[in-house]
């Protein structure tokens, strides 16, 4: 099973509240997005990385890719205003370079703790089912709230928290983005486009450690996950940033 991966790094990281884009923050002197790319660089099933970045950060990211020997990057693509647009720009670049219909994994650059096991699981599921996502069962009680009043408690037995990578045939997800644009779909993940078009999406159990670095407290968790996975170096000094 071979695939190309689209790594998304063109956000602003506003919820993180730091001076720089959160995917450029460092864990042990290595930027988050490089940690993410290294996972795919080391996966022999990954045949190409397409990295989507902010226009003003492309040169910095190109230098980082060289410095950290990320050799599988085929293109660094300029992102869009929203994640959905960034994905579409990345898919367009991938489609222009592909002479076949490869499996494509779409992954948040802000999720550096993705593991090989989950990548393989979601890719194999998509190869079989056409589309697959990683998700983990929610652990909290979820309520619908309006004006600080509980409206409804949602039965959590069927609720899952969705992660990335999300995996598809390139033509499937590219066409879904085109159709979604035509119909004015606004989505926060790519599988939603297929769902709204009535197409099936398989769910593969993910790993709770595959967190998306979003708010400052995620950085504390990231430091511990890094130690857990890379040995006990406490070099991740978030106060430096
Ligand atoms: N226009 C955008 C927005 C987001 N992303 C990427 O999509 C992933 C998930 O998005 P999110 O966590 O929301 O990142 P930001 O948009 O940067 O965060 P915020 O909403 O706090 O600004 C991130 O790796 C982010 O870099 C992107 O490539 N292009
Ligand atoms: C794609 C995603 O990570 C799945 O949970 C999530 O939807 C991204 O949302 P964000 O607001 O762009 O971080």
From TrEMBL:
The record marks 15, 22 as: Transition state stabilizer. Keywords: Isoprene biosynthesis, Nucleotidyltransferase, Transferase. GO terms for biological process: isopentenyl diphosphate biosynthetic process, methylerythritol 4-phosphate pathway. Transmembrane segments: none annotated. Its EC number is 2.7.7.60. It comes from the Bacteria. InterPro entries: IspD (IPR001228), IspD/TarI (IPR034683), IspD/TarI_cytidylyltransf_bact (IPR050088), ISPD_synthase_CS (IPR018294), Nucleotide-diphossugar_trans (IPR029044). One of its GO terms (molecular function) is 2-C-methyl-D-erythritol 4-phosphate cytidylyltransferase activity. The record marks 156, 212 as: Positions MEP for the nucleophilic attack. Pathway: Isoprenoid biosynthesis; isopentenyl diphosphate biosynthesis via DXP pathway; isopentenyl diphosphate from 1-deoxy-D-xylulose 5-phosphate: step 2/6. Gene3D superfamilies: Spore Coat Polysaccharide Biosynthesis Protein SpsA, Chain A. It catalyses: 2-C-methyl-D-erythritol 4-phosphate + CTP + H(+) = 4-CDP-2-C-methyl-D-erythritol + diphosphate. Belongs to the IspD/TarI cytidylyltransferase family. IspD subfamily. Catalyzes the formation of 4-diphosphocytidyl-2-C-methyl-D-erythritol from CTP and 2-C-methyl-D-erythritol 4-phosphate (MEP). HAMAP family: IspD (MF_00108). This is 2-C-methyl-D-erythritol 4-phosphate cytidylyltransferase. The lineage of its organism: Bacteria, Bacillati, Bacillota, Bacilli, Bacillales. The gene is ispD.
